[in-house]
Q: What sequence folds into this?
């Protein structure tokens, strides 16, 4: 072991943090968070303990990135196969190893193509599986998590949703909100009303122009 490895090893109580990945150890770690009645599913209580162990708040966006790496199907749950898929790829079978990967996981959000994948994944991950659309309360939380810090118009968009008639967001609207946030200027100068945007975003532009005192005469909603 070189000096750097020795120093890394002393940074954590986890003495195996520099050893090679072990599927057996990874499975044993998983089972620390499951119950005997359902040993292959890590549920909400186990998730809370897992987050506590790795020192990450459950609502931290890095947990969404980790779920994306696992391709987890349902928020608040990891199956054994999902756990092994994600952690095998990350080569993590201990608390110490995954803590060393947290910065890497956060940095994935800075890669536009990967971020788009995580954003699209979040829709199916977070929505109620009994519904085709995402309820607005969940959508607001997820949009805040993913776009709140990086989209200057997010607070206005959140206000628009609060006063709008919309109770759910469908996948087309969800995907177009990201595209809008990436391509439309904050002054809306390049928004094309005749473009292929969902009516929701036409209505947001109209509402925002009224809020800014710019009037709505030039932004009659398409199809009205």
A:
């Amino acid at each position: 072991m070189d000096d750097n490895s020795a120093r890394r090893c002393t940074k954590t109580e986890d003495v195996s943090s520099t050893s090679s990945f072990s599927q057996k150890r990874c499975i044993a770690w998983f089972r620390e968070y499951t119950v005997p009645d359902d040993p292959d599913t890590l549920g909400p209580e186990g998730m809370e303990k897992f987050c506590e162990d790795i020192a990450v708040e459950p609502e931290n966006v890095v947990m969404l990135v980790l779920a994306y790496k696992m391709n987890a199907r349902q928020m608040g749950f990891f199956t054994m196969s999902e756990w092994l898929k994600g952690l095998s790829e990350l080569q993590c079978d201990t608390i110490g190893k995954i803590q060393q990967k947290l910065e890497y996981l956060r940095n994935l959000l800075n890669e536009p193509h990967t971020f788009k994948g995580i954003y699209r994944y979040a829709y199916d991950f977070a929505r109620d599986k009994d519904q085709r659309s995402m309820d607005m309360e969940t959508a607001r939380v997820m949009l805040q998590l993913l776009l709140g810090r990086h989209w200057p118009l997010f607070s206005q968009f959140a206000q628009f949703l609060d006063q709008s008639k919309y109770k759910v967001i469908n996948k087309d609207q969800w995907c177009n909100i990201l595209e809008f946030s990436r391509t439309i200027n904050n002054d809306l100068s390049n928004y094309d009303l005749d473009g292929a945007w969902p009516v929701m975003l036409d209505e947001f532009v109209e509402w925002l122009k009224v809020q800014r005192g710019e009037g709505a005469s030039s932004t009659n909603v398409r199809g009205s």
Notes: The chain has two domains: 23-110, 112-212.
